[in-house]
Amino acid sequence: MSEFVLKPLGELVRGREPGCGMPGEVFSRPDVFETDIDIFFHQHWIMVGVTADVPEPGDVSVVDIGKASVIIVRDDDENIRAYRNVCRHRGARLKEAGKSTVGMLVCPYHQWTYDLDGSLRHAKHMGKDFDATCRNLRPVHLKVVGTHVFVCFADEPPADIAKLEETMAPRFAPYELQNTKIAFESEIIEDGNWKLVMENNRECYHCEAGHPELTMSFIPESTSSSADGMDEEGIKALDAYNKLNAETQANWESEGWLCSAVEELSGDVATHFRTERLMIGGDGESQTIDTKVACQKLLGNLTRRDLGDTHMWTHNSWTHVMSDHAMISYIIPLTPEKTLCRTKWLVHADAVEGVDYDVTKLTEVWVATNAQDASLVAINHRGAQDPGYIPGPYSPSTENYVDQFVGWYAGRLKAHGI
């Protein structure tokens, strides 16, 4: 009997039938998972938090991604910095994952002590010839866009983060997202591969049946790329949405609000992202059950409530910014079958809980949606591991962005020699 040989990852992905999903082993093999971490989470820009995670000097947020760990800290001059979470002595972790407040960063092993600017300030018993300036903490590339904290562990990070920054900075600017606080945050460990989590986020084929709370405010047609494959009722709904959306965007644009879709999802792009100002259903104010604002104190100095949803996707995050709050989620792969999803709800820094906003109203849509998505990802992951699974075709009208994500994934593997 011949010995079973695993196909190389690149062959598996690029060998998929066009317009269909990837084979199940891409979501479960340990070697694929390690490759994913190395390429997509250590060599690309990833979101690891928001500025409100470190609101004051000395505040620290530590995020572990695979074997790597990054310290995000706000220094005494209010700058946000990022460092490798590795002591320059013998490599001990300086801080455990999570948030804390420090005066200086002190290694728990031998008490080497670092200032918040990364410089080594104290290292006892190292002899008169020891040069502390050669042992500062190793910086990690960092970009803050709006409130989003992006890092890249690569020596030479992808330069096209500039396109994301150039696109998103003016869209986020009116909301003054750095003048916000975290009203609520949650963590879910989803029982599925990170790629399935992101694929699920890229389509709303499942929304009508799967997300009753979200569909009170979210319009499924907003993610439909074409009428191809739709029935007559679906085509009418898409036509009505496109007409109303054009009218709404014209109104926004007349007041200077950026609306148009920008897509950097395929081709040779390394920094994968999409943005658009989307309409909100109902009263059109916010992603809440009643579609009205959940926080009476609007973001920035806004006075208009019906500004829709400025959304942004990256390959490990999704963002929805409304006039009253922002909902920001990002993922970290833990194992081939486990993915951490962190979500943060941001409100104006001066908003008062119980006066300006109620936490339940603020969060109930996406608390429910995230839990529902976790269940859907879990059944997707389990089914994709069944020996009887054969990848089926994507819906051309509602799963186009899933197909683009898989195409981008395959392209990045090829770009890295896989």
Automatic annotation (TrEMBL):
It comes from the Bacteria. InterPro entries: Rieske_2Fe-2S, Rieske_2Fe-2S_sf, Ring_hydroxy_dOase_asu_C_dom, Rng_hydr_dOase-A. Its cofactor is Fe cation. GO terms for molecular function: 2 iron, 2 sulfur cluster binding; iron ion binding; oxidoreductase activity. Residues 45-151 form the Rieske domain. Keywords: 2Fe-2S, Iron, Iron-sulfur, Metal-binding, Oxidoreductase. The keyword Cytoplasm does not apply. The keyword Coiled coil does not apply. Belongs to the bacterial ring-hydroxylating dioxygenase alpha subunit family. This is Rieske 2Fe-2S family protein. It comes from Paraburkholderia diazotrophica.
